[in-house]
Amino acid sequence: MSYLAFDLGAESGRLMLGSLAEARLELVELHRFPNRMVNADGGLHWDVNALFQEMKLGLRICAERHTRTPASIGIDTWGVDFGLLDEHGELLDLPFTYRDKRTEGAIEGFLKLIPRRRLYELTGVQIIPINSLFQLYALPRDKSSQLASAAHLLFIPDLFNYFLTGKKQSEFTFCTTSQLLNSRTRGWEKEILAALGIPQSLMPDIKMPGTDIGPLSDSVRAETGLDNTLVRAVGSHDTASAVAAVPATDDSFAYISSGTWSLMGVESTEPLVDDTAYRHNFTNEGAVDGGFRVLKNITGLWLLQECRRCWSRDRDLGYEELVRLAAAAEPFRSVIDPDDPQFASPADMPGAIAEYCRTTGQTAPDNTGQFARCILESLVLAYRHTLGQIRELRPVPPVERIHIIGGGSQNTLLCQMTADATGLPVLAGPKEATAIGNVLVQAMAAGELGSLSELRRVVRESFPPVLYQPRRDPCWDVAYDRFQRLKVRQA
Predict the structure, then answer these.
(1) What is the pTM of this model?
(2) N or C: fewer beta carbons within 10 Å in the chain?
């Protein structure tokens, strides 16, 4: 059997076709398309209508090129964002993006309704402004009429599943990113919904990964030429699908899903919401097997992506060239805290980094290679900082290796720096972890794979990871002391 995986990220989306043969996965890209935030009515939005047109084009390409109909389709996207539908099932407006500035001050406002410690106790979710909770709080605060007109809330992957099938439901792993779910009961938290003034009826039913959503609607079948293909829930939060594809052999590992964000954490059968998790602001997000990914959201390659966007006004720089320039640049010249709020959405990322360095008494980068080196070294120092927190939070089993998956696994400098800074072996890959996890969860649902461990064995056999051994360099310890002082400054 073959399976289709839509993997939508903040920069682009793609349709992948996967099939199992002799316990190995073959993965082919059928269609890739851009995804950009759009300015509309003074806010940043996702153009889900344009994305859906691209998705249907991808399905038509599949139908034209492949005589064998795929068994199912799975969709994964970035977290937290949602759309609101009226009573007729029509989208009220393009969904806001998590980088829209309307959530400024939302945390402080909502915490007057439910105290911070109580909110964390209920949800086990890292308290950051992008969460669905604070996006919803901002709507009535800003005099928006959307909630009053809304009959259904659907998260981004649920919205596309609805466009494909007409079925309105949500999926566990994505729901856990919203800070609206009770991590212990795995249901919508009534206390939070009441504080927001949201009726329970607005929220979708929650399904587990591997659940059938339904067949393609008649109109989608007619438009795409695909028939007898089910839409299935997968780990619809992209990190859930990616972590499912970590090629681990046991539990003694931490993972870093490296892309626009760096998601670093460990796995747990139950949510960890004790004082240590609260103090370090860890989040508990759902895993495809019903457990949890206990992790920290770290600002990731967004910093480099935004610098590249600014530099592209003068010349087009590829990521490979940026890594080469970073490797040749002076090490440990300047250090930033990637999670400082001033890096969340600046108009000029290189300018924001330079200003941060100046205000912290450091020499600012003054060329492309130095900026790229500063970003990569600072990300790696953030990984080391988070690793220390993970060891405190979950000492057993001990973390003996780090798996880096996603696009960042192809960055050889980043991977070697991570090994050197943490003192742990790093296993890099697969790059396409999200699409791989998406496809293989569908294969599990179809009965081709029996367990998560069997799924990971297929990943190891199909996409052997690259090993980076740590090299001792005391300069990392000196740089880490500087980084820790910056964290204290921010706190």
Answers:
(1) 0.94
(2) C
